[in-house]
Amino acid sequence: MAMGISKRGQGKVKGRGRLLVTVTVYGSAGPLRFLVNEGEMASGVVRLALKTYAREGRLPLLGTHLDEFLLYHANGGFDALESGYVISFNGARNFLLCKKQIEEVIEEKVEEKAIAGSVIASKKGYSSSWKSGLNKGLNKILSFRI
């Protein structure tokens, strides 16, 4: 070994290279930069990004569930990467991390609003159906004109 350079310092660990990956978290102030092993899957990149994000104490708080996030190529494409996508020297190293809109949460909120709306309508003496409420209102208007 000449001049104290070791094999470990040359960027190779157990025959694999390490890549500097940049992940921009949607809604965050700046990108995250960290090293991953070549051959790491997209799910591993998401896991490392969430750990790094939390370790740095960034806001807004994201959580730790990998299923709630989508990873995209930063330079193109509208399709999220599959969790089995492999990071390599030939591929992209810049990514965008977004939180999913979970349909179940949205459906629950819609149901809560519908229930609240029907409670308010029943307190006012209206039917919970918007069609019957519209018909009653139109009947009142027409009865005044006759």
UniProtKB/TrEMBL annotation:
Recorded superkingdom: Eukaryota
Coiled coil location: none
Domain (DUF7054): residue spans on this chain: 17-98
InterPro entries assigned: At4g22758-like, DUF7054
Name of the protein this chain belongs to: DUF7054 domain-containing protein
Residues in the signal sequence: none
UniProt cross-references to PANTHER family, sorted A to Z: BNAC05G50380D PROTEIN (PTHR33270), OS02G0324700 PROTEIN (PTHR33270:SF18)
